[in-house]
Amino acid sequence: EAGVAQSPRYKIIEKRQSVAFWCNPISGHATLYWYQQILGQGPKLLIQFQNNGVVDDSQLPKDRFSAERLKGVDSTLKIQPAKLEDSAVYLCASSLDRWSTNEKLFFGSGTQLSVL
Amino acid sequence: DQQVKQNSPSLSVQEGRISILNCDYTNSMFDYFLWYKKYPAEGPTFLISISSIKDKNEDGRFTVFLNKSAKHLSLHIVPSQPGDSAVYFCAARGSSNTGKLIFGQGTTLQVKP
Question: Cβ-count burial of B1 within 10 angstroms (0-12 exposed, 13-18 middle, 19+ buried)?
Answer without folding.
Answer: exposed
